[in-house]
Design a protein that fits this description.
By secondary structure, this protein is an alpha+beta fold. About 25% of the residues lie in helices and about 15% in strands. The chain has one domain (about 15-270). It has a five-stranded mixed beta sheet, with helices on one face. A five-stranded antiparallel beta sheet has the order 5-12-11-4-6. It has a two-stranded antiparallel ribbon with strand order 1-2.
Length: about 270
């Protein structure tokens, strides 16, 4: 009579070794997977904003080489004063997709969906994660205006209170963008989640959801991730963060804020005065 041999099995030590190896592999792979996901989000977000820039260029080519107005690019009022889709809708298909940063997906941190009035889905809180820079209404495709920004930690100690800078002060405190910024990836906390106007001005901030920065679209159609020195988004407020009031240009022998209330005239940015 043959006695069956016992089947070999794992000992407790071997099992623990296998579990430890699996845990080690997971700990090695997870950061890589997280980094790949962040890279994918950044790439998609950049593509979305680039498409908005292309749409603005196409509109300009149809309208004397000038961009639309900030008050009607995203929303307009019809003859009955009802909100209707703005000019962007005439130049972009699947706008409900490209208007959303894949990391935020048009979510409103304050809750509710009152902002989603221009989309059919009605499932999110914001019309756009991206907004047009206030003051760029009527900007020409060939404009050469230099746009400066204040981005120094020392602004907490007095520089922030300056509404205008002399040329010497500008050299010390301000930095030039490489060309004219048109769209910003606005922070949902300050103040895209509160005001659904599609405009980036005054105390509005840039988001920091892409590795402490947000996307900017320039007049030449290029897009880049911009990381201000001071950009804390949710836990901080505009008195310390980089905001739209920190954008300047040369006006009447001074560097002055681009944002002004009431809004500057259409096309003024092409020859500021």
């Amino acid at each position: 009579m043959l006695i069956p041999r016992p089947r070999p099995g794992f000992t407790l030590i071997e099992l623990l070794v296998v579990v430890a190896i699996i845990a080690l592999l997971i700990s090695i792979l997870l950061p890589s997977l997280g980094s790949a996901r962040e890279t994918a989000w950044t790439t998609i977000c950049s593509s979305n904003m680039r498409q908005m820039g292309v749409a603005g260029t196409m509109y300009a080519l149809d309208n004397d080489d000038k961009y639309w107005h900030t008050v009607d690019w995203a929303r307009r009022r019809d003859h009955s004063n009802r909100l209707i889709p703005g000019h962007l809708y005439n130049y972009v298909d699947n706008l409900d997709e490209i208007s959303a940063c894949p990391k935020n997906k048009r979510q409103n941190p304050y809750g509710g969906d009152d902002g989603a009035t221009l989309f059919d889905d009605g499932t999110v809180g914001l019309d756009f994660d991206y907004c047009m820079v206030e003051g760029m209404q009527g900007v020409s495709l060939g404009a050469q205006t230099t746009i400066m920004y204040l981005d120094r930690k020392e602004k907490w100690f007095g520089a922030r209170s300056f509404i205008a800078y002399t040329r010497e002060q500008g050299r010390e405190w301000l930095t030039a963008f490489r060309t004219i910024p048109v769209f910003m990836e606005e922070s949902s906390y300050w103040y895209n989640g509160i005001y659904f106007d599609g405009r980036w001005g005054n105390l509005d901030q840039l988001t920091n959801r892409h590795d402490k920065g947000g996307m900017i679209t320039y007049i030449d159609g290029s897009v880049e991730r911009f990381v201000p020195q001071i950009n804390n988004d949710e836990p901080e407020q505009s008195t310390k963060d980089w905001v739209a009031n920190d954008l300047y240009t040369w006006i009447n022998q001074r560097y002055k804020r681009i944002y002004r209330y009431p809004s500057r005239p259409f096309g003024w940015i092409n020859a500021p005065r």
